[in-house]
Amino acid sequence: MYETTYHRASSVDDAAAAFAKGKDSKFLAGGQTLLPVMKQRLAAPSDVIDLSKIKDMIGIVPTNNGIEIKGATTHYDVAESSDVQKAIPGLAYLASVIGDPAVRYRGTIGGSLANNDPAADYPAAVLALNATVKTNKRTIPADDFFKGLFATALEDGEIITAVSFPVTAKSGYAKFRNPASRFALTAVFVARSPSGEVRVAAAGASQSGVMRVGAIESALTTNWSASALDNVKVSASGMLSDIHGTADYRANLVRVMAQRAVIAAG
To answer: Cβ distance 265 to 190 under 8 Å?
Structure first.
């Protein structure tokens, strides 16, 4: 690991000020990505600003229309929250199958979204649930937030302070895990709003990162059941193809995981 200057921020403004002063600053939330790449000397930030102790960035708050999860809230706290379990059970389940216990106790929702790993779990939920990402500068709709592999709409120095999720009528998540990394080889989140709108998002499958799956959305809008997807064809165009699975394999997994997610949603 290269030499760096560590800052423990006491507020969002304090963190933003420290970031601006550094030559090549990085924010640290749970550290599940930044610390490993620093240890491998693949990243050498001049300053590391720790967000994990900012009280205003930790917690889960029920709202009139849903749930607001603060940016530095851990996966474990999301999984164990009775408010999340009641309002969006699919989201609570998703948090419970991220990584392993050590990762869930340290990793944060804001850090996961800011990193936007193509095989990460939260991006699928944020996109399918039509959530809103709140930062220290603005609010960003889910459809505008994800910009490709490891890319988001966040500007340099922008901090995810919270994510606002609307209550859903149905929500479910199914994940086909890589047995070694526990990242999603392919995972699908399905959601139906109280008004009947269906949104479906897949992670770990596309070369462009998290994606909406229109064919499955159309089928579930007509008939919310796993059997409605029996004959749905998901295109393999643009799907990842590697040692873990071909593009055709992943395309089929998207359909199969969507069926399992619908069953989980009820």
So the answer is: yes
